[in-house]
Amino acid sequence: MFESLTQRLSGTIERLRGRGRLTEENIREATREVRIALLEADVALPVVQALIERIKVRAVGQEVLKSLTPGQALIKVVRDELTAVMGSQAADLNLNVPAPAVILMAGLQGAGKTTTVGKLAKHLKERRKKKVMVVSADVYRPAAIEQLKTLAEQVDVLFFPSAPEQKPEAIVKAAIDDARKSYVDVLIVDTAGRTSIDAAMMAEIKALHAAVTPVETLFVVDSMTGQDAAVTAKHFSEALPLTGVVLTKTDGDARGGAALSVRYITGKPIKFIGVGEKPDGLDVFHPDRVASRILDMGDVLSLVEQVEQQVDKDKAQKLAEKVAKGKKFDLNDMKDQLEQMQNMGGLHGLMDKLPGMGQIPDAVKNQVTGKEVPRMVAIINSMTKKERRNPALLNGSRRARIAKGAGMTPADVNKLMKQFQQMEKMMSKLSGGGMKGLMRGMRG
Ligand code: GDP
């Protein structure tokens, strides 16, 4: 996410971090670099100007120059201001209305609207425990209705059927009636998108909005379009009272311009970001966490949440108990850990959220993505039960046999055993000093 912006900014920041003293010249230089990085990331000019102005005012003030660690203080100023321009706090959906709460989704064709309806349905069902129904009012493309039906089945929510010969308002009114009868909490309405904004499209969605009075009207926009995303959202918000924006495709090589511009240009909060094509590729937008990620300070909180949602709790609990009792960590435990990692989208999905990752070239990151974890699992699979429980048995000839069984070289097996030893060491620190022990393990 926002890799090039991150790379540029973290370069600037690295140079400042350790400084014991900063001169005004250093600060001018740094703000110049931040400005160039923002412009290159396609952040809208008024946003860049406002940001730089605020950073400058604070940077030459007491807060930074008099600080014992001016480099750090300046980084904090930049992070605060990036956070503020994105809206400071995560903006929640308003669902506190008599059921069904209607969410109207608008956007240009191809922005990711239908995909987002599926993701949002899953999010509301699984994380907010809501009974969800979806309906398509896109009467121009029968394929769009079919696409939504398939998505609804995939995420297992109710689907209200519609057909091209119906009127959008009639469809949605019927869906609301049905939702009420079926005790649905949230009804998400997908609408037609066009290739660009046109009068007929605006008139139609305005009429639809007036007829169904949704509690949330979300504008879905592709982050790859940079600051244009903010401009399109602004046009829409002039015609329709938007309550928020969903920024899609932030997992691609979007430069960050959209994320940083939307709030300032439209006055509307970004509520969610799309982070992948699959139904679970939707994150709540947390301005502070995104700012930290842009500055390559990592997004450990999101990482923790992701782990909490996706980890097999029983297995995690068993391992925690085992470690607490001071029992030995073995290769079966390692295999469990690796498999859980795979469930979370492999190392790549996790790495993206760790501090400092922006510095690591893509070529290196790609080496550890995808294939690495399944290969490690394959090596462990080719060991006997006894060997997994007692890694000390693994002498040279056993390692050669395992390598052959997994279709790999003894060097691969040795590498895995090194990684195992590191994990084992970390676990033993954990059992000694709890969380503090782990933190020590990570640092040292
Ligand atoms: P609509 O015309 O606005 O309804 O757009 P669709 O929902 O059909 O999405 C258009 C394309 O964008 C599809 O190929 C989606 O898989 C893709 N897409 C949507 N959201 C995301 C996202 O967050 N990340 C990625 N990588 N692709 C997305």
TrEMBL record:
Binding site for GTP: 107-114, 190-194, 248-251
GO cellular component terms, A-Z: signal recognition particle
InterPro entries xrefs: AAA+_ATPase, P-loop_NTPase, Signal_recog_part_SRP54_M_sf, Signal_recog_particl_SRP54_hlx, Signal_recog_particle_SRP54_M, SRP, SRP54, SRP54_GTPase_dom
Pfam families tied to this protein: SRP54, SRP54_N, SRP_SPB
EC number: 3.6.5.4
Catalytic reaction annotation: GTP + H2O = GDP + phosphate + H(+)
Chief location: cytoplasm
Residues in SRP54-type proteins GTP-binding domain copies: 269-282
SUPFAM superfamilies, per database record: P-loop containing nucleoside triphosphate hydrolases, Signal peptide-binding domain
Biological process per Gene Ontology, one example term: SRP-dependent cotranslational protein targeting to membrane
Gene3D superfamilies: P-loop containing nucleotide triphosphate hydrolases (3.40.50.300), Signal recognition particle SRP54, nucleotide-binding domain (1.20.120.140), Signal recognition particle, SRP54 subunit, M-domain (1.10.260.30)
Superkingdom per UniProt: Bacteria
Location of the protein in the cell: Cytoplasm
Record flagged with keyword GTP-binding: yes
Keyword Ribonucleoprotein: yes
Keywords from the named record: Cytoplasm, GTP-binding, Hydrolase, Nucleotide-binding, Ribonucleoprotein, RNA-binding, Signal recognition particle
One term of GO molecular function: GTP binding
Function according to Swiss-Prot or TrEMBL: Involved in targeting and insertion of nascent membrane proteins into the cytoplasmic membrane. Binds to the hydrophobic signal sequence of the ribosome-nascent chain (RNC) as it emerges from the ribosomes. The SRP-RNC complex is then targeted to the cytoplasmic membrane where it interacts with the SRP receptor FtsY. Interaction with FtsY leads to the transfer of the RNC complex to the Sec translocase for insertion into the membrane, the hydrolysis of GTP by both Ffh and FtsY, and the dissociation of the SRP-FtsY complex into the individual components.
Domain remark text: Composed of three domains: the N-terminal N domain, which is responsible for interactions with the ribosome, the central G domain, which binds GTP, and the C-terminal M domain, which binds the RNA and the signal sequence of the RNC.
HAMAP family assigned to the protein according to its UniProt record, in alphabetical order: SRP54
Complexes and interactors: Part of the signal recognition particle protein translocation system, which is composed of SRP and FtsY. SRP is a ribonucleoprotein composed of Ffh and a 4.5S RNA molecule.
Family: Belongs to the GTP-binding SRP family. SRP54 subfamily.
Protein name as it appears in the record: Signal recognition particle protein
